[in-house]
């Protein structure tokens, strides 16, 4: 293998380690926050310890000594909590959270390759503080003995005074271990930090030179380890390589049956291999007590089955051993025992990590496949060949299923983003002297991964605003007849083809008169204006708008809410705000489920193709008579089975010639009206033709078209023509706005340039 290839593999492995460490840090933070509120939750405490231990172990494999040294201090304090020697207190919780931040800073140094003296100094200071809280002034490596964990733990505790219990490890690395950037010796060296390696024998299965793959790993090890660690601790050493190695651990004090099963597993009835492995164990000192050498060695007759204990004794005593001898345990039983000892749960075994850029590339390819499939379908319709039509229909179904499956790969629960705010709420509430209950609902609601990442920052602004401006101090809440503890809630749910995220609080609410006065002062509204509540709340999103009396570390500068609105609209979303004075504020964000592909409904207006999201289409009907009464009217109302609804004529709205223009009397009736729904709101859209369902790959509009509020993007049809994807929120807002003028038709006819 070339040196450059080695470096590339190691770099890729390091990236994987850092990604996994980031996940572990998030789990660690969640566990610490839960521990602060529920100190008695032992399982949560164990989860925090496992996360810290995993980070330390994998960091040690990559030589990240600073991470290992500091994380050890955090781990030691956690061990004190697990053992019951320490109780969870506010100083300990605060120190562990600061330790979490320091671990993140150290890992960031690994990621960037730049060390900082300030970070190193912080490690020393905080490390000393952690040791002080533990009460020892300098704690040795943790014994990791967890009370009542398992029998191995008890054995380790009993053997602590003698330097630990005697473990036996059988380790085999997979053929791809080196290709995946793993260094087998690094695991052995790190294993030595748990105790003393009493013996190590290399087991190499090297093929003939003609069959040798120079990049493959053929190494295995049989080791003796004397340590007070638990079996879980030993397994954690190999956690990073669990998919690239086979590890089996024989507990201290195990009888011969454990080695008998291991012999059967490793050798699978191969007499020569079993002979060699027994010789290896003999050199390690295995067999004197564990394989039952109290039985006298016997000479086996050909074809006899000799127990592993007797075989070991014969080997140790120099007696002859027939190659036909096999362990007594049936292979099926050995396999069953191996399955029972597998560290990975079935759920874990089903998950595979994939790089985000590879997934994005797959989505792009499927998008092009959708476009190509539409082209094939169009050609099939033109040819009118039944066999061709049937084949393209089948291909279209498979493409749609593939598209749905690929998009599902990008969907992640929004709860992972919501959980980040728990730390923000905790730290901010303590900083402000407020008592706040943070509630998350609908965290399992799924959203496109790319959108989850982009929505985090806007949500952070909303959460901070609620904490700083919304929820009052405990004394003020009590004076207002409220509970001293404020409530901040984030909720997510699916609604139609969108996801709705709400951030609400039970604080003081927005003060309409104050906002209105500030807007008039800044010239945003004329003197004496009396806008609706919804219009007043929208003033909050004006650039630089703020009613705060003073600037704080959190807010008051008039920046943030305009950025929130701009970022939400960039995602084809919509943000709305409602508030009741003295009762609280609710901010609602509505987003599409994905930015990549949608099921669309294709229409034709004035020779231009327009696509509606299929999820919002309620029904299609002939254009009602009231919509034809005034041919030049852009919008109005019509009666739908006793319900009056607004409508928009898309041809007039975009300033294009309708397909019915100049038609003979009665032909205008051939136009159609599509009823679309957004929540409880329904609006009719008048179009020239209905072209049916269409799988739509959304392409962003060029910057020159970004001022078009009622267009969400574009797509390419199978014919190569461009179709425009309608922004339903923009159209609905235009239709509702058009109903406000007192006289009919007061809204000026918008063109494509200002639509």
How would you characterize the overall build of this protein?
The chain is α+β, with helices and mostly antiparallel strands. The protein has five domains: 132 residues, HPT domain (Four Helix Bundle (Hemerythrin (Met), subunit A)), CATH 1.20.120; 194 residues; 55 residues; 180 residues, 2-Layer Sandwich (Heat Shock Protein 90); 142 residues, SH3 Domains (SH3 type barrels), CATH 2.30.30.40. It is built from 24 helices and 21 strands. Strands 6-8-9-11-10 form a five-stranded mixed β-sheet. A hairpin with a 5-residue loop joins strand 20 and strand 21. Helix 3 runs parallel beside helix 5 and helix 9 crosses helix 12. It is flat. The C terminus is likely disordered.
User: Which spans of ≥5 residues are poorly predicted at pLDDT below 50?
Assistant: 136-162, 288-349, 662-669, 741-755
| Main sheet characteristics | 5 strands, mixed
Strand content: 15-25%
Share of helical residues: 40-55%
Report the end-to-end length measured between terminal Cα atoms: 61 Å
| Biggest sheet strand line-up | 6-8-9-11-10
Gyration radius from CA atoms, angstroms: 35 Å
């Amino acid at each position: 293998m070339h040196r450059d290839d080695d470096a590339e593999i190691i770099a890729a492995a390091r990236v994987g380690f850092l990604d996994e460490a980031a996940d572990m840090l998030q789990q660690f933070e969640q566990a610490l926050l839960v521990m602060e509120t529920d100190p008695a939750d032992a399982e949560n405490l164990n989860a925090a310890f496992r996360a810290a231990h995993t980070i330390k172990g994998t960091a040690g494999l990559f030589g990240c000594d600073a991470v290992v040294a500091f994380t050890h201090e955090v781990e030691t304090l956690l061990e004190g909590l697990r053992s019951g020697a320490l109780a969870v207190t506010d100083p300990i919780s605060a120190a562990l959270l600061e330790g979490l931040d320091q671990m993140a800073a150290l890992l960031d140094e690994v990621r960037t390759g730049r060390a900082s003296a300030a970070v190193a100094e912080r490690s020393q200071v905080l490390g000393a503080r952690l040791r002080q809280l533990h009460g020892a002034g300098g704690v040795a490596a943790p014994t990791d003995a967890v009370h009542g964990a398992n029998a191995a733990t008890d054995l380790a505790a009993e053997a602590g005074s003698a330097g630990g219990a005697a473990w036996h490890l059988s380790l085999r690395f997979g053929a791809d271990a080196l290709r995946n950037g793993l260094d087998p010796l690094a695991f052995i060296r790190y294993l030595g930090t748990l105790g003393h390696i009493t013996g190590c024998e290399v087991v190499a299965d090297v093929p003939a030179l003609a069959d040798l793959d120079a990049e493959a790993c053929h190494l295995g090890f049989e080791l003796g380890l004397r340590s007070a660690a638990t079996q879980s601790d030993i397994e954690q050493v190999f956690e990073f390589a669990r998919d690239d190695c086979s590890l089996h651990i024989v507990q201290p004090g195990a009888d011969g049956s454990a080695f008998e099963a291991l012999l059967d597993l490793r050798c699978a009835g191969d007499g020569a291999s079993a002979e060699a492995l027994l010789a290896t164990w003999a050199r390690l000192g295995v067999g004197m007590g564990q394989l039952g050498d109290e039985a006298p060695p016997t000479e086996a007759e050909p074809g006899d089955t000799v127990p592993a204990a007797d075989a070991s004794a014969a080997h140790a005593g120099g007696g002859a051993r027939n190659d036909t001898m096999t362990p007594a345990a049936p292979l099926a039983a050995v396999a069953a025992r191996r399955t029972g000892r597998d560290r990975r749960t079935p759920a874990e075994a089903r998950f595979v990590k994939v790089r985000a850029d590879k997934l994005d590339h797959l989505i792009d390819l499927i998008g092009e496949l959708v476009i190509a499939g539409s082209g094939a379908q169009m050609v099939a319709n033109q040819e009118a060949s039944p066999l061709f039509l049937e084949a393209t229909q089948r291909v279209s179904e498979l493409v749609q299923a593939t598209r749905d499956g690929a998009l599902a790969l990008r969907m992640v629960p929004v709860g992972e983003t919501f959980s980040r705010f728990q730390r923000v709420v905790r730290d901010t509430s303590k900083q402000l002297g407020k008592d706040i209950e943070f509630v998350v609902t609908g965290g399992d609601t799924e959203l496109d991964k790319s959108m989850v990442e982009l929505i985090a920052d806007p949500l952070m602004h909303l959460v901070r605003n609620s904490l700083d401006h919304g929820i009052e101090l405990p004394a003020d809440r009590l004076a207002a007849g409220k509970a001293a503890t404020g409530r901040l809630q984030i909720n997510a749910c699916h609604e139609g083809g969108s996801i709705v995220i709400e951030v609400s609080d039970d604080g003081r609410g927005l003060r309409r008169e104050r906002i209105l006065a500030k807007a008039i002062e800044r010239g945003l509204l004329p003197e004496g204006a009396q806008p609706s509540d919804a219009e007043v709340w929208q003033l909050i999103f004006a650039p630089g708008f703020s009613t705060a009396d003073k600037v704080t570390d959190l807010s008051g500068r008039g920046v943030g809410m305009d950025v929130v609105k701009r970022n939400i609209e960039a995602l084809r979303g919509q943000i709305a705000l409602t508030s009741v004075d003295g009762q609280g504020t609710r901010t609602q964000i509505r987003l599409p489920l994905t930015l990549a592909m949608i099921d669309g409904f294709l229409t034709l207006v004035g020779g231009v193709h327009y696509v509606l999201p299929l999820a919002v289409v309620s029904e299609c009907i002939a254009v009602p008579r009231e919509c034809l009464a005034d041919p030049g009217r852009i919008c109005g109302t019509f009666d739908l089975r006793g319900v009056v609804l607004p409508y928009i004529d898309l041809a007039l709205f975009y300033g294009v010639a309708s397909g019915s223009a100049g038609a003979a009397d009665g032909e205008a009736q051939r136009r159609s009206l599509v009823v679309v729904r957004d929540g409880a709101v329904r609006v009719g859209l008048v179009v020239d033709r209905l072209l049916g369902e269409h799988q739509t790959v959304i392409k962003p509009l060029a910057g020159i078209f970004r001022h078009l509020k009622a267009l969400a993007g574009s797509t390419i049809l199978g014919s190569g023509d461009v179709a425009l994807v309608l922004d339903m929120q923009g159209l609905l807002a235009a239709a509702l706005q058009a109903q406000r003028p007192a006289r009919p038709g007061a809204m000026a006819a918008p063109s494509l340039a200002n639509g």
